Amino acid sequence: MPKRVAIIGSGQTDHTSRRADVNIPELIKEAVDRALVDAELTIDDIDAVVIGNMEHFEGINLSDMWASEGSGAVMKPAMKIATGGTTGASVAACAYYHCASGLFDRVLAIGWEKLSESDTTTGIITAFDPIVERLTLAGAVGGLAIEANLYMTSYGITQEQVAKAAVMARKNAQRNPHAHLKLDLTVEQVLNSPMIAYPIHYLDMCPTSDGACAVIFASEDVARKSANPPAWVKAAVCRHNHPYIGDVDWRKSTLESAAIEAYRLAGITHPRRELDVIELYDPASFALLSWIESLHICGPGEGGKMIDTGAITMEGDIPVNPSGGVISTNPIGATALIRVAEAALQIQGKAGARQVEGVRTALATGFGGSYWSEVFILGRAS
Amino acid sequence: MSEEIIVRRTALRIPYSWAAGAHATRFYREIADRRRIMGTRCPRCERVLVPARKSCSRCFQDTTEWVEVGPAGVVTSFTIVHYSEPRIQPMEPPFAVALIRLDGADTALIHLLGEVEPSEVRTGMRVEPVFADEPKGRILDIRYFKPVSVD
Amino acid sequence: MSGQVAIVGVAQTRFQSEKRAQNYAELVHEVVSELFRTTGATHDDVDNIVSASSDFWDGRTISNMAIQDVVGAYMKSESKVSSDGTLAVLYGMMRILSGQYKTTLVVAHSKGSEGVPNLIANAAFDPIYQRQLGIDGLSTSALQARRYMEKYGVSEEDVALVSVKNLGNARKNPYAQVAGEFTVEEVMQSGYLAEPIKKLEASPISDGACALLLAREDIVDRFTDKPVWLKGVGHCQDSYYLGDRDLAESDALAVAARRAYTMAGIDDPRREIDVAEVYDAFAYQELMWTEILGFCPRGEGAELIRSGVSTMDGTLPVNPSGGVLAAHAVIVAGLVRVAEAALQLRGEAGEHQIPGAKTALAHGSFGYCGHMHCVWILSNEK
Predict the structure, then answer these.
(1) How far is CA C216 from CA A30, B8, C33, C47, C75, in A?
(2) N or C: which end of chain C has fewer CB within 10 A?
(3) Is C343 within a domain?
(4) Torsion over CA of A80, A86, A90 and A96, rounded to 10 degrees?
(5) Contacts of C239 in chain A (CB under 8 A)
(6) How far apart are CA C102 and CA A368, in angstroms?
(7) What was the pLDDT predicted at A360?
(8) Which residue of C has its CA nearest to B94?
(9) Partner C, chain A 252-271, Cβ-Cβ below 8 Å
């Protein structure tokens, strides 16, 4: 059995489209300072640092080096993890294993990105194989549009249902002081926004944000004495896929595979009943419907019903993305770590206006690379 | 029979626009407006950090005080660069890169040396900045450091 | 952790200035196949993967995408350390120590031939204060070399001894890229790249890959009768701005070494370590690092060579493989230090075998002028 590890604090910047007032290490330090204040610790209490972002988005090679001006890593064990969109979750997992291994007691996990400093899509295009696929795939939206179209046509999910999910997420974001897009939208506005790649409209898609997130993981003994209620890590699971998009089997989801293993580790048999809140990595709004099916929250094709009945709204039985999710806030290297931080806040009862009542078990996901997934399950009870 | 391997040549052309932040902005404004080089002092270790930083990375404390340093200082190490990479190098080799501890600073600034024969450069040499005529908010607003004239 | 996880197999490619016939996946396929051939393992035996590679060197965001299929990551957990390979070993070990995994495949790849090394190195210097100065790994290391030599009275001839020793040792290493019988005079006259660093004192940039298989103590027998136990590890990051440090010192290496020695129970490294593979990206670094690792007093690194202590037939041979001076695939080179140390402890180092080696040190470094260090202590005794 893995050793017990908990999240004992977190901090985020107030994510926005451009933070010209701070440079990269200054942005990172804002999130770290907030996490330390939240956990009532100082940097001297931190044993190790794990940090991540994607280098081409800012054009900084060895980005953890300059980042150390603000990350607190100087004269500490430190490691950089970078896995695309999953980066933040991969950073969280690495910090988790730092503690679960018994080698470290308090580990600072940091994800950050300053997407205003470059052209994000240009950076993403370079993720594809330069000999075969780079010439034909156009950044993140291309593959997502293929998946969205396949999902919607397979199950008769309508554009209106998807747009409703987009409206819900931006409405939730209004309760989150850290969220980037706090928009008051109507379904019509989403449907009338420009089509980026059919069936994904502009307002269905995630933005690009400047922001950083820091989460403090602790070993069991330390967590039990922490200033905050610990959010115990019940499962941390990652699943990868084939690297060529043409090889990806769209019916065999890494998210489903990761979720099944995470449920096994956490002893969850009825996810819909046993999970109280989900922080889903939703790069586009269709994912709010389709990917909760992969999580076995509902049956195949029932995602549309989940928004129609309000089940995944703040008032529903399984709220998804009280934070507003990725389509409201997306500093890529931080994005998946924000999911973990938000899930922890829900467990800790510290989510403020976006708090879901009585959360005992929360699930967070990460998405990136060639359809890779990460799943975390956090719980109030150890 | 050996076949020639196909090689696809390209360059990543990604535009970047890096925010300097408020502290580096002031650092460059001081050079542009007053020909002054500024550092910031850490309240914990009391080191004067040059170039100016918002926080001390070792102490993880925000700096609290701006301190004018130099503009002259001492070369604490140097190299003469003999290889050519014109896509990044601002001078023709051979040229000198040096760590320069400006008077009043506790850290060294990395910069270029000019108006000196490479073979004449020595550790311990006193140097002073030569500022660019038209500052643009970049480290080359100090064109280079040159030996302090003895007369 | 001491003695709970073992290296049960290692494989490396031959390192060359250009390996045009193999792309990244094919390079990694070569080492994974060799690893499986020598251990009898298959992809089914590998329950998770940790890779190390660099987006900047690969010219590809999410550089680990390229190798997903050849490491068998489909529907498994893979993560990427964007730092030296020694840290990938550490992360791989943490995953096993956590109790969640039993076997970690650790791989690293790089092709220096496909990018422009000086440009890539220059991009590690921050664009606000440093990058426009045109500095890179070579010119900044030269600043460190001079500072070290002037502070401790080390001559250029002293430094040249390292190249003579290591390139000489490399003649016995079939994987080395650069090898030869050189005299101090020849090294001295090989021409300055950046004073005081000369051509024969600078590592080449290589193409190549390396892989290790780590296993939990209860299953090592499945793969080998010559396990190499991970006994101690320490890593530490130094200040970013080179002018913030005294470049003649390396506090980060001192801290990393202390952690590793304490964990492994090493009191007297000079006596207790039988062989060391250290990260000599430039010749002066072997002198600096071996002094700070405690093999001799400061300033006496060259004396270790002159007196024969660190030569092939000495009591503490350093870099019998030829070290990084003989082959430097960025990121891979640290993993190769661990692999070479393991080969020594398995008695499989061929012509550069140190007879009877029981305890070995492997050292990796990343960033410029030793911004990050990782020290490993390995043993063939549990």
Answers:
(1) 40, 43, 21, 11, 21
(2) C
(3) no
(4) 130
(5) 68, 74-75
(6) 25
(7) 98
(8) C194
(9) 252, 254, 257
> Is C139 a domain residue?
no
* Residue C62: domain span: 5-115+206-222
Which residues touch A210 (CB under 8 Å, ≥6 apart)? Answer: A13, A15, A16, A17, A18, A19, A27, A113, A114, A115, A116, A331
Domain membership of residue C12 (yes or no) is: yes
Tens-place pLDDT, residues C110-134: 999 999 999 999 999 999 999 999 9
In this complex, which of B16, B19, B58 lies closest to A75 when CB atoms are compared?
B58
User: What percent of chain C clears pLDDT 90, i.e. is strictly above it?
Assistant: 99
**Chain C residues lying within 8 Å of B41, measured CB to CB:** none
CB atoms within 10 A of CB A307: 26
CA distance A216 to chain C (A): 18
Distance in Å from the first CA to the final CA of chain A: 13
Tokens, residue A171: 């409405």
| Record: contact C127-B90, CB cut-off 8 A | no
Contact C236 A62 (CB under 8 A): no
Instruction: Please say whether the beta carbons of A9 and A35 come within 8 A.
Output: yes
Token pair listed for C19 = 């390996």
The radius of gyration of chain B from alpha carbons, rounded to an integer in Å, stands at: 19
Residue position matching structure tokens 């390139």: C167
What CATH number does the domain containing C50 carry? 3.40.47.10
Is pLDDT above 90 for A316? yes
| Domains of chain A listed by start with CATH number | 5-120+206-379 (3.40.47.10)
Q: What is the mean pLDDT of residues C170-193?
A: 98
In chain C, the number of structural domains is: 1
Partner-chain contact C120 A61, CB within 8 Å? yes
Residue contact A127–C23, C-beta within 8 A: no
Read off the pLDDT of each residue in A299-325 and give the average, rounded to a whole number. Answer: 98
Q: Please tell me which residue of chain A has the smallest CA distance to C239.
A: A74
Chain B residues within 8 A of A23 when measuring between CB atoms: 18-21, 24
Mind telling me how many Å the CA of B105 is from chain C's nearest CA? 10
- Contact present, A239 and A361 (Cβ < 8 Å): no
- Report yes or no: A87 and A332 within 8 Å, Cβ to Cβ: yes
H/E stretch holding A11 reads strand A5-12
Closest residue to B99, CB basis, from C118, C239, C242: C242
Non-local CB neighbours of A318 within 8 Å, separated by 6+ positions: A272, A275, A276, A277, A278, A292, A297, A306, A311, A312
Tens of pLDDT, residues A123-144: 888 888 888 777 776 678 888 9
Q: Which helix (H) or strand (E) segment is C373 a member of? A: strand C372-379
Give alpha helix (H) positions in A159-253. Answer: 159-173, 187-192, 220-224
Cα separation, B56 vs B15, whole angstroms: 30
- Asked if A58's CB is within 8 angstroms of B55's CB, the reply is no
In a domain, C323, yes or no: no
User: Which chain A residues contact residue B19 at CB under 8 A?
Assistant: 18-23, 114, 116-117
* A-B contacts (CB, under 8 Å): 66
Chain C residues touching B26 at Cβ < 8 A = none
Residues linked to residue C372 through DSSP beta bridges, in sequence order: C237, C366
Residues lower than pLDDT 50 in chain B: 1
Q: Where are the beta strands (DSSP E) in B20-149?
A: 37-41, 48-49, 55-56, 61-62, 65-69, 73-81, 95-102, 109-113, 126-131, 142-147
Q: Say what the pTM is.
A: 0.97
Contacts of B among chains (3+ CB pairs under 8 A) = A, C
- Element spanning A79, H or E: strand A78-80
Q: Which residue of B has its CA nearest to A131?
A: B8
Alpha-carbon span C336 to A257, nearest angstrom: 34
Amino acid at C376: W
